[in-house]
Each structure stands twice: as structure tokens, then as C-alpha cells.
Design brief:
With about 550 residues, this protein is α+β, with helices and mostly antiparallel strands. β6 (about 445) and β7 form a beta hairpin. It has 15 helices and 16 strands. A five-stranded antiparallel sheet has the order 8-4-11-15-14, with no helix packed on it. It has a five-stranded antiparallel sheet with strand order 9-10-16-12-13, with no helix packed on it. The chain has helices spanning about 5-25, 30-60, 70, 115-125, 130-145, 175-195, 200-220, 225-245, 250-260, 260-295, 300-320, 355-360, 375-385, 430-435, 530-535, and strands at about 345, 395-400, 405-410, 415-420, 425, 445, 450-455, 455-460, 460-465, 470-475, 480-485, 490-495, 500, 505, 510-515, 520-525.
Length: about 550
């Protein structure tokens, strides 16, 4: 779908597995290569209906030539954060605003459960075959890739097609989670088949339990001293956050109401809870081990006991991240109009617009959240943020400011006819013209490579407005230009009273059509060639 990062990462991991199987089993090279080629061809064929349009969009987007190194490595996994693979809330959590490391909590989390880690450890200690080694290698690769900017060799990714268009390298932790699960299964099998020979494992588990209990006891006894040190670190972290830019309103409110101790006290409690969970998981595994030694006929119930323990661990950890309410209510809510034929825009600081309400009221945004913005739109929007007059071109009537108040401004209609036959300049750069300080979109129309004075603007009636089709009533008395303030994009076709015409870029990013006098209907229809070709192949 709209997340090509995951299938491409999956393709890389599958390729590793393909090579491992080939070299470990010494398969017939020509036969296995033929199978791989057929498989790849089938994949590309079945997916062509999605791949071709997506590739077309990629080339027109801000990612078309790859991302900058800073964007490419955003949300890299700091090596110290590997602690959270065992203690998931060691660095706080986004639930109570105690997160004290950079980037978002969910992209850097890869908690698979305490017993999963323990069983995978048993596999590594007792089952040193090629399969175990492969998954250990995949774990190492996924973690090194997830390190991103913390990996000195990661800049190589900048030169690899497609990979250099993806942010957030920590998403490769998907294959850590997958591999650690496979190793846990191998460890489970080993535990079931050789539990009588696992006295060394029992000793190791006992040592780990003792360490956990000592750390917990020591932490609780020295809690006051630890919190005083944590307060200093938290104050330093908050000062750094304020110097980089304003910290979130919620964090500021909590800081004013409760002080730094609100955060450090909760982080301390999270860490103690995580260590306690680890100790309980270790004790549970030891209890299972002891139970089977006493009554070997209970061996068949071991998998179910371990699964119940593991599910309880993951369920209690994950439940609080589902369906939650905010701890601190926002003071300002944005009041939306009941319905509007115009678009709205909010500054980047505002996240209080209910997207579901917009959909119900058929109100469109001109900003929104885009991770692969079209390049020309991005340039236009950045210019319009500095010069709100350009928002008229975006058909924007409501501009929300930081306190949630909606400012009503004049805007161009969604569809209009511009009476003009006076072309003043040819071969102009549209973006240069519209970003000029003196430019007025109501007086001058920039269409294709021409600059035309507007004698009059006549709003047009949109008869039908759908995702892939827009039909407009015209009835113009003279020749001129029909402008639809929707994004220009390859694949849109126009039919003027039933006859196909040609669409030009208007104002650098919108759709414009030159038409003769006395036209009654104009219809825009989206039928991209990439989709047609892709559908035939698929």
C-alpha cells in the first residue's frame, strides 16, 4: 500500500535467507536461480498495478532524488536504547510524558517479552547450528541498520536506490522482533528435549534472578539519592529542549504544576516495574523447570505455561498503549464551520483539528500530514506560509492561528473562469512569478509558460466533485481560461463539451485549461497511464 519501506526491507531479509539456504544446503545453483527469477517476476507482475503509479509519484516527490542525510537518519536507534529490549520503559514512556530520549517512543520500541529474550538466549547457548547462526546474524544486521547515524557505515545507504528515500532506520527492528521469535522457538524446543541436561541454564537463571533482586533492592534503598541525581539530569534535558525550541504545552504545564520530580519519580517506578517483570519471568521459567523435573508427565504442558506467562507479560505492557485519554486536556479547541467549499490551513504547531470531523463536514485541508510531499507543492506551501496571500491559490478561506481561532480570509473560488486574452509574457518560470512580493493571483494568471492579465473572474458551479472526476458548468461568453484549484498531476485528462483538451499548470501547481467561448461543460477525469499499464500487467 502506502508503506513501501516494509516490503522492500522484507525483500532484503528474504534475500539473505535465500542465500543462507543456498550455501548451507549446497543446492543446485541453476535451478535455485531460475526459481528466484520466476518468483521475482511473479512478485513484480502481481504488484505492477501498485508499483508503477507509486514510482511515478516517488519521482515527483521531495524524495525523488533521495533524502538528505539528516532526514534519512531521523529516528535512528541510539545504541544505549538497546536496554529497552529488556527494560522497555527504562527511558520513560510517551503515555505520561516521561520520555527522556530523542525521537518518538513507538519507533524505537521493540519489546518482545522477557521470556522471548530468555528462550532465545537458551537457543544461542545450547543450539549452535547454521539456522541459529543465520538468525543471530539477521538480528545483528537489523540492529546495526536501526542504529542509523550512530552506525559509521550508514552513509553507504545514501547511495542505494529506494533505500535512500526512507526515513527512520529503526523500522528495520521488525527483523529483530521476527528473528528473536524464531530463536525463542528454537530455545523452547531445546528446553523441552534436553531439560534434564540444563543444570547450567538453571544456575544462570538463578544468578540473573539474584542480580535483578539486588538491583531492585539497592535502587529502592537508594531511591532518594538516585532521584536527586535524576532531577539534575532532567533539568539539563529540559533546558536543552527549551534552547532548541519550545517544549510541548503539556510538558510545560506539568512542569509548572508538579516540578521535575513528576517526571523522575515516574521514570524510577517504570524501571523498577520492568526489573520486577524480568525477575518474575525468570522465576516462572525456573518453576516450570522444577515442575517438570518432579513430574515428567507434565512436560507436554510446558509450552502452554510459557505462552500464558509470555502473553500476560506482553498484554500488561501493551494494554496501556491502546485506547487512552490524554492526562492533560487542551484548553483551546478549534471550532470548525458546519460545511465549507473552501479549504483550511493550520500552522505546524496546531494538532487540534479533528480529522474525522473534517471528513464528516466535507472540509478539505491544504496542509495536513504528508511524508512524501510532491516537490512543487512543497515549494509552493513553504512560500505561502511566509506570504499568506498565496493561500488564495490554495482555495484557503480559513487560517487557524496558535490559539485555535479561525481567521476568515478572502480566497479564489475552487473553480473559476478568468476572462483574459492579453498575454503579456511568454516563457516565464511560474514559481519565480508567484513568489514575487508584488504578485496578486486575482489580477494575474500564470498558466503554462505564459503570464496573462485577468480582466474578470467568474466563479463556476461544480456539478459533481469526486476523487477521480470533477464536472463543471461553464457557459462563458468569451475565450479565456478555466482554472480548477486542485493539484496538477500526470494522468488527469480534460473533456471540453465532450472533446478531449489539454491541461496546463496554473499558478505553478493547479489545473488550468484554455477554452473558447460558449462552452457549457468541462469534465476532469483521472486516468493515469501508469495505472492502466500496471493493471494490464497484473
Amino acid at each position: 500500500g502506502s508503506q513501501p519501506q516494509i516490503p522492500i526491507y522484507t525483500f532484503i531479509a528474504s534475500s539473505f535467507y535465500y542465500l543462507y539456504r543456498h550455501f548451507s544446503e549446497k543446492t543446485d545453483y541453476p535451478r535455485i536461480l531460475k526459481t528466484a527469477v520466476v518468483t521475482l517476476a511473479m512478485f513484480l507482475g502481481i504488484s505492477a498495478i501498485q508499483i508503477l503509479p507509486a514510482y511515478e509519484m516517488l519521482k515527483l516527490s521531495v524524495r525523488g532524488n533521495g533524502l538528505s542525510y539528516d532526514q534519512l537518519t531521523s529516528a535512528s536507534l541510539p545504541p544505549v536504547q538497546l536496554i529497552s529490549l529488556i527494560l522497555p520503559e527504562f527511558f520513560g514512556t510517551s503515555l505520561d510524558y516521561t520520555k527522556w530520549v530523542a525521537s518518538n517512543f513507538w519507533e524505537l520500541s521493540s519489546y518482545t517479552g522477557m521470556l522471548t529474550i530468555i528462550l532465545a538466549g537458551i537457543a544461542l547457548l545450547t543450539n549452535r547450528d547454521k539456522l541459529t547462526f543465520f538468525y543471530l546474524t539477521l538480528i545483528a544486521f537489523s540492529i546495526l541498520y536501526a542504529f542509523g547515524k550512530f552506525n559509521p557505515f550508514f552513509d553507504v545507504v545514501s547511495y542505494i536506490p529506494f533505500l535512500n528515500t526512507f526515513r527512520i532506520p529503526s523500522r528495520f527492528l521488525l527483523f529483530f522482533s521476527f528473528s528473536i521469535s524464531v530463536l525463542a522457538a528454537i530455545g523452547m524446543n531445546k528446553f523441552l528435549s534436553d531439560f534434564q541436561k540444563m543444570k547450567s541454564i538453571k544456575k544462570l537463571l538463578s544468578i540473573l534472578v539474584v542480580i535483578c533482586l539486588i538491583v531492585m533492592a539497592g535502587s529502592l534503598l537508594a531511591k532518594q539519592k538516585i532521584l536527586e541525581l535524576a532531577d539534575l539530569l532532567a533539568q539539563q534535558r529540559l533546558a536543552e529542549a527549551e534552547s532548541d525550541g519550545p517544549i510541548s504545552t503539556t510538558v510545560s504545564t506539568l512542569l509548572e504544576q508538579h516540578g521535575v520530580r513528576y517526571f523522575t519519580d515516574r521514570i524510577f517506578n517504570h524501571i523498577i516495574e520492568n526489573i520486577a517483570t524480568l525477575a518474575i519471568s525468570l522465576l516462572a521459567l525456573m518453576a516450570v523447570y522444577k515442575l517438570v523435573q518432579v513430574k515428567s508427565n507434565l512436560k507436554k504442558f510446558i509450552p502452554w505455561l510459557i505462552i500464558v506467562i509470555l502473553l500476560f507479560d506482553l498484554w500488561t505492557f501493551g494494554l496501556k498503549y491502546n485506547s487512552r485519554t490524554l492526562d492533560v486536556e487542551y484548553e483551546n479547541k478549534i471550532v470548525l464551520p458546519e460545511k465549507s467549499d473552501y479549504r483550511i490551513v493550520s500552522p505546524p504547531e496546531i494538532y487540534l483539528i479533528d480529522e474525522a470531523e473534517l471528513t464528516k463536514r466535507s472540509i478539505q485541508r491544504f496542509d495536513g500530514y504528508y511524508v512524501a510531499k510532491l516537490d512543487d507543492y512543497d515549494k509552493f506551501y513553504e512560500a505561502a506560509r511566509v506570504r499568506p496571500n498565496l493561500m488564495k491559490i490554495g482555495n484557503v478561506a480559513y487560517y487557524f492561528v496558535n490559539n485555535g481561532t479561525a481567521i476568515l480570509q478572502e480566497s479564489l473560488p475552487r473553480a473559476f473562469f478568468a476572462y483574459s486574452s492579453n498575454v503579456t509574457i511568454n516563457n516565464v518560470d511560474q514559481f519565480t512569478i508567484i513568489t514575487n512580493e508584488d504578485f496578486d493571483p486575482e489580477k494575474v494568471l500564470v498558466i503554462s509558460n505564459r503570464l496573462a492579465e485577468i480582466a474578470a473572474i467568474e466563479p463556476l458551479n461544480i456539478i459533481s466533485y469526486e476523487a477521480n472526476s470533477v464536472e463543471i458548468e461553464v457557459n462563458n461568453k468569451a475565450e479565456g481560461y478555466l482554472v480548477l484549484l486542485d493539484k496538477w498531476y500526470p494522468g488527469w485528462k480534460v473533456y471540453i463539451d465532450g472533446k478531449e483538451g489539454s491541461i496546463s499548470k496554473a499558478y505553478g501547481i493547479m489545473r488550468g485549461v484554455e477554452i473558447n467561448s460558449n462552452i457549457t461543460r468541462v469534465k476532469f477525469s483521472f486516468a493515469p497511464e501508469t495505472f492502466k499499464i500496471g493493471s494490464y500487467i497484473t
